[in-house]
Amino acid sequence: MNAMKLAATAALLGSTMVASGASAADAVTFQLDWLPGGDKAPIYVCIDQGFCEQAGLDVTINGGRGSSEAVTKLATGVSDIGIADIGALMAARATENVPVTAVMSVFNKGPHAFYSLDGNGIETAEDVAGKEIATSPFTSSNVFLPLVLGEVGLSEDDIALTKADPGALGPMLMTGAVDGIIAWMTDVSRYTGQAEEVGKEIVVIPWSDAGLELYSASMIASDSFLAEKPDVARRFVEAYKKSIEFSIENPAEAAQSVANMVPELNAENVEGSLRDTLVLIDNEVTERDGLGVLLPERLAATWARVAEAQGLDASALDPETMVDRSFLPGTM
């Protein structure tokens, strides 16, 4: 009887330990900078494919409405870690010294581009001179427009710029209402599809090809999260990096992970957006510097661009003070 009681007690203790282990995952709140989609695939891959769980993490995703809002939510402790344009963080650090730090590059190229149609006479950035160009009112591309025009010897006075609702940009281009539009590289598949529907061919001119070289979307984190839970942060960054690598190697499966978690999204459309996005993540810069790396020289050049574009004092920030590379695997 005693042996039976001992066995039962041992079994009970064992089951309690399993339950305790299962519930011991560290909670992490991840902040998006915009709505779910193919460009946000890695965080959904991390959860759906089990990378986060394997790292002992229980991740909750908070939606976002822009990089500035994402920085604010991290600075105020609403979220722990997330994605935002590093330019928004730089501006916030320079003007408000927000307690938020960049730990990893995600887009090592800016997403900004001119779009036109074959036959419109726009093949390079210089060709927008004298053309009618539409942009959405609130895109961060507008901040960098004077810089990219300056790279090719133009100014905003050399184009006829119209601001329109983001959803109207494609139709305006396809119907000939404008000669070109300003949009992100993450939308190539969408605009290509719209052009094919009217028997036309899209022309895409990335601003990076015109000399606007900079970091863009990056992983940033609350300073309190990094200080109080460094092991959790390190495990999360490693799991997220694995999720990016999975997305590069398996874009269809990664897109399905997004659709699994956000059922209102179509996996095929998500895959198109993800494939567009991957050129900003996995490219010649990645081959040279490594995935996720924030190279000091490129970081400094990014801040110089951001300061110039936003009229900020370049001496107001040493960009090295807003980066902690120790959380990225292989960079210790």
Record the strand order, biggest sheet.
Answer: 2-1-3-10-4
Order of helices and strands: HEHHEHEHEEEHEHEHEEHHHHHH
Assigned CATH architecture of the largest domain: 3-Layer(aba) Sandwich
Outline the low-pLDDT stretches: 1-22
Note the beta-strand portion: 15-25%
CATH superfamily of the largest domain: Periplasmic binding protein-like II
Total number of domains: 2
- Could you say which overall geometry the principal axes of the C-alpha atoms support? globular
Radius of gyration: 23 Å
Structural class: alpha/beta
What's the helical proportion of residues?
40-55%
Mean pLDDT, to the nearest integer, reads 92
| CATH top level class name of the largest domain | Alpha Beta
> How would a crystallographer describe the biggest sheet?
5 strands, mixed
SS summary, helix count = 14
State the CATH topology of the largest domain.
D-Maltodextrin-Binding Protein, domain 2
Termini separation (Å)? 56 Å
